[in-house]
Luciferase-like protein (Dictyobacter kobayashii), 285 residues
Amino acid sequence: MKFGLAIPNCHGDFSDIHLVAEVAHEAEEAGWDGFFLWDHIGDKWGDEVSDPWIMLAAIAMRTQRVNLGTMVTPMTRRRPWKLAREIATLDHLSNGRMILGAGSGGGIEYTNYHEPGDVKTYGERMDEALELLSSLWSGERISYEGQYYQIENVRHLPRPIQQPRIPIWIGGVWPNKKPMRRAARWDGVCPIGKGVGMTEQMTPGQVQACFDYIRSQQSPEQANNQDYARVQWGILDGKDHGYDAALVSAYAEVGVNWWIENLSWERGTLQELRSYIRQGPPQLA
């Protein structure tokens, strides 16, 4: 089991790039394995927003070991070729520690900015964008003619450090099946439960049903891949370490191999959460 933290890139001191980079350093020192940021540009979460990619660059310079990434990036709000360059550059800056959490996006972050498309096409556009990312990271010269994206005679170098590609984890709402079928084709899944609040989490039974469905969509080789990330978007107690260890073990039994602690202003300011982060993750037997 690996343990990560996910924090907003918005709202109050969560948008303070200096504080976030320092907290990421403290998280690494405390034994966490990953540090992830939300990817918002401005909506109901508040007006204080910092760009997650610039924040990740600052974090990469303050850490040496932890995996870094977004949880999750709305793919259809960004041009795939620009995103490919940004993430590949961060993979080099971090010496091969980047992970892309990807989702289809939507909501007032789209409509308020008059972004093109609608909920019926976001998934289709996302699928094209992911294929483009993977192809561009290959370092080969490519052309692509899709319904939503087209490029001609393009080569992206340098390749990312991680090959054959930077890991792509797909976010989606369970029990919706379409995002889980998408997740089955990539490198991991980070599901959230329908109707589950910011200080709640899916039960082990719900998680197992989600993972079982994903495995049913995979080849035996894919389903048995130990590197495939099965993420629990979790909530630890932070006070009773025995309880936390038992809780995580219950999720490990249903296949979770990455616990990502969901931190937000609903649980306090980032300054207030620093002592919790410094405790480090639970110690499992």
User: Anything to note?
Assistant: DSSP finds ten helices and ten strands in the chain.
